[in-house]
Amino acid sequence: MKTLDVAIIGAGFAGMYALHRMRGMGLSVRAFDGAGGVGGTWWWNRYPGARVDFPSAPYYAYSFSKELNDDFVWKETQPTQAEVLSYLDHCADKLDLRSDIELETWIYDPRFDEETQRWEIETSRGDHISAQFLVCAMGSLFDANTPPIPGIEDFSGELYHTGRWPQDEVIFAGKRVGVIGTGSSGIQAIPVIASEAGHLTVFQRTPQYSIPAGNRPLEAEEWQAAIDEWDERRAAMDESPFGLPYKFSERSALEDTPDQRQKVYEEQWQRGGLHMLFSAYNDLLLDKRANDTIAEFIRGKIREIVKDPETVEKLLPDYLLGTKRQVIDNGYFETYNRDNVALVDLRKDPIHRITADSVITESGEHPLDMLVLATGFDALTGAYLKLNPTGRGGARLANTWRDRFSTYLGMVIPGFPNLFMIHGPQSPSVLFNMPLGAEREGDWICDCIRHMRENDLGAIEPAEGVEEAWAENVDQAASATLFHNTDSWYSGANIEGKHRQFIVHLGGQQYFQHLRDVADAGYEGFVTEKA
Ligand code: N01
Is the pLDDT of residue 58 over 80? Predict the structure, then answer.
């Protein structure tokens, strides 16, 4: 048996930062990860075309240490998966974390022992671990979703999921490839697969408002400027509502004439990246009339780029732009001008079933050698439900969350003492700068553990009923926006049988201020037990 102060599940951005901080506090701590390397989501999502849709350091990187950049240079403005993974490998070495990370090790069946105030945990290696605290840094998008399409298990060609991409090279050349799904992953993968495959058929359920990424090599002077201005840029992230390096517009789209708006949108389109959503106008995600203007602009771009009128019709999105995760791309719409690419609109031509070597839709059979599922994740809660820890009174999480996902602050779960989540449901997670959010949440957990040690406390958990006020807080932040009006994975709509609940906190910086206020008020909303 191994006895620890803290067991961390996950060795991505969040788990590695928590490990680094907690070791620095003198705690005995280890991180466990089922993957064969560090990197978390960046280890698993190695599908062709995978990139960050966010500018590189200091923005999508650890911000707590400028020194981590001393011998690492980002090569592109929107780094590839391989580049991010090599950055995280570099950080693991530079922070000397590897001796406290157990890879290829899954955590099973964590149980809270009320007598000892400790978590008792099994690993896939047959070890038993006893830890006072369990920190779940499992990632918001871990549990890959294989949709229950009839016959999917019969497919005998090559079958891949973007979120579980193999380590070995996948060869597309000369093959008939099908991709199901046009979210961020599908839209990144489709242009790359199309450029290599014999033929590509894209099976699309919901067309997307994708924006050009504007990716390009990072010039040496730009990188040097990022280093020289590190502190200023970090401070700007701290000021920015979502930890993003964008200038947020203070102007309503409805204040401008159609011609003025066209000019603004065109400028942002040429600039590329997520700027368009934040820097063009301040009400695109708040007011449907404003949203309609940008949606129509992007539909116009699709009409301009794609040559075949029938394909254009299939590609035109009609939901409220930005209320599904905004996608940015590298030549996505242009891909449909290739002779070797076909698009199936599943809303008009649904899949009947999958056979050993084809996908059969209403209109006929699509023979395939390879099928790529870009069908997303059971986001935010899937990994927790699979872990299914046992809390007070033998309660299993799957039961506690059967009708509603309840947390306090998105950091802790009622009835599960000494268990902390990083990027958990009802925290900002995917709608804030994720490495920055991981640092802030990791710091908060460290402060909480320090508070417990200083006050001789053995267990901490949410007070009765605080989860209800927290759910209201999450709902209030979302109801001020248009997010509620669209089916998305933010609300569980992508998973059959999952109950609908919007579980991303849209408060941005205000959320993190709230976390600090709770700590400053002596961990308001928590109850504790003496050790
Ligand atoms: O998954 P998704 P993803 N039949 O859920 C379709 C992050 N990310 O892996 O929209 C047919 O977005 C589904 O259709 P619909 C980012 O946060 C970041 O692409 O539900 N189709 C959709 O088109 C992102 O949001 C980066 O109607 C089915 C697609 O599959 C999140 O990961 C890169 C289906 C799933 O899209 C998830 O993105 C990549 C079915 N039964 C991802 N079931 C960065 O750049 C699902 N679909 C940082």
Answer: no
Question: Within 13 Å and on the Cβ side, how many CA atoms surround 2?
Answer: 19
Span 513-520, mean pLDDT? 97
Quick one: which atom of ligand 1 is closest to the CA of 182? 23
SS3 122: strand
419 in the same domain as 456: yes
Tens of pLDDT along 407-438? 999 999 999 999 999 999 999 999 999 999 99
Half-sphere exposure of 351 (CA within 13 A, CB side): 21
Distances 281 to 268, 278, 336, 485, 497 between C-alpha atoms, Å: 11, 6, 30, 20, 37
Rounded-to-10 torsion of CA 308, 313, 314, 319:
140
The alpha carbon of 189 and the centre of ligand 1 are apart by a number of angstroms equal to: 12
Q: Closest ligand 1 atom to the C-alpha of 206?
A: 27
Domain that includes residue 262, residue range: 176-371
Least confident of 58-72, 308-322, 429-443: 58-72
Q: What is the distance between the alpha carbons of residues 225 and 219, in angstroms, rounded to a whole number? A: 10
For residues 303 and 358, membership in a common domain is answered with yes
Whether residues 340 and 438 fall in one domain: no
| Dist CA 287 CA 485 (whole Å) | 12
Tell me the H-state helices in 147-257.
Answer: 184-196, 220-228, 230-239
Instruction: Identify whether 190 is part of a domain.
Output: yes
CA of 511 to the centre of ligand 1 (A): 26
- Residue 56 CA to residue 97 CA, distance in Å, equals 23
Domain-ending residue, one of 342, 371, 400: 371
Residue type at position 91: C
Statement to judge: residues 251 and 314 lie in one domain:
yes
**190 Cα to the center of ligand 1, angstroms:** 13
Query: Chain-centre distance of CA 40, in angstroms?
Result: 11
Q: Which of 163, 243, 248, 273 is nearest to 438 (CA)?
A: 243
Taking the C-alpha atoms of residue 367 and residue 356, their distance in angstroms, rounded to an integer, is 9
- The set of protein residues with a Cβ atom below 6 angstroms from ligand 1 is 51-53, 141, 147, 149, 162, 180-186, 188, 205-206, 325, 346, 374-377, 430, 489, 494
C-alpha distances in angstroms, 402 versus 45, 274, 454, 499?
29, 35, 36, 8
What gap in Å lies between CA 161 and CA 193, rounded to an integer? 14
E strand map for 97-172: 101-102, 107-113, 118-123, 128-136, 158-161
Residue 134 β-bridge partners = 7, 419
Residue 193 belongs to a domain: yes
